[in-house]
Specification:
mainly beta, 0% helix
Length: 321
């Protein structure tokens, strides 16, 4: 188990898709309400030693970050002033950020890079909108998607269909979009309260997971969206993040304001077995960020308002420090 200290409250953690042991962390001062931010880039050596290889300070908090899928040195961040800042680790500190994109009229809270069409990325914000960007056309967004009536907390690309993405919103809806269509292709009334997070199953893109203020996780099949497949109950606080494993079709992770990270086997539901595989309680504040390593099976990371990021493998049991 490895622990990285951040300067401010941590909102997001993302493993590099190129370099094993490298991860980015988006942070904000005063829980992101007011104050500065910092983008940390850490490298964890095989012996567990942690080194911050880059750090970028911002005037506003950072709520999310995403690695480029075509350039191992490029990162985008979602900023509390509504901007999207782009960083290049190959350039000197004073040359960063290399670009600041300013179209969201309120806080930008999520960024997601397309794993197939690797010049494209999405952003979403508290202005109820989703925007599509291209690194090949950096001056303005390619398109704005409107349809939600409250903050769009998360966007995520379909892992198998390069033109399709989902959006999760505080209006209690999850919408599916296709870049080739003028509006959403599907709207799911996912919860009775705000939906803070959603993710695609990496092996079956008809299956989604959603997490909500109502403390539950729901599984959905987009071919029959009128009712959830099943509900996972176990968190005692807001479900802030759900994430399917890139290495197993049935494994789902979640993090919560109850300060825990949980790992679920959704296949156990069909056997009427307990789906909860493990629950970790290593954080002492809301757990905002969560990620799986694409390069090392079983490696996970979590980020919290307690100003720590933890890395561990799925088979590790951890006690609260």
């Amino acid at each position: 188990m490895v622990r990285c200290k951040t300067r401010f409250s941590a909102f997001a953690v993302k493993f590099s898709p190129f370099k094993d042991g490298r991860l980015a962390v988006a942070t904000g001062q005063n829980f992101g309400v007011v104050g500065n931010g910092r983008l940390h880039v850490f490298e964890v050596a095989p012996n567990g030693m942690v080194q911050e290889v880059a750090g970028f300070d911002t005037n506003d908090g950072l709520f999310d970050c995403a690695w480029s899928e075509e350039n191992e040195n490029v990162l985008v961040t979602a900023c509390g002033d509504g901007s999207i800042k782009i960083y290049d680790l190959a350039l000197p500190l004073q040359a960063n950020p290399v670009r600041a994109l300013r179209e969201h009229t309120k806080e930008c809270c999520c960024v997601s890079w397309n794993p197939t069409k690797r010049d494209l990325f999405l952003s979403s914000g508290w202005d109820d909108s989703v925007k599509l960007w291209s690194m090949g056309q950096p001056s303005q967004s390619l398109r704005t998607f409107r349809g939600h009536t409250y903050c769009v907390y998360q966007v995520a690309w379909n892992p198998q269909a390069a033109d399709v993405f989902l959006s999760a919103s505080g209006d209690s809806l999850v919408k599916i979009w296709d870049l080739r269509q003028p509006g959403p292709t599907l709207t799911i009334k996912a919860h009775g309260t705000e939906v803070l997070t959603a993710d695609w199953n990496k092996y079956n893109d008809c299956v989604l997971a959603t997490g909500s203020v109502d403390q539950s996780i729901k599984l959905w099949d987009v071919r029959n969206p009128s009712r959830e497949i099943s509900t996972l109950v176990g968190h005692r606080g807001v479900v802030r993040k759900v994430l399917f494993s890139p290495h197993s079709e049935s494994v789902l992770a979640s993090s919560s304001y109850d300060m825990t990270v949980k790992l679920w086997d959704v296949a156990a539901l069909s056997r009427n077995a307990n789906p909860l595989l493990c629950s970790w309680e290593h954080h002492t504040e809301f757990v905002q960020g969560l990620d799986f390593s694409m390069l090392r099976e079983g490696l996970m990371a979590s980020a919290s308002w307690d100003e720590f990021v933890y890395l561990w493998t799925q088979d590790q049991q951890m006690a609260r420090p």
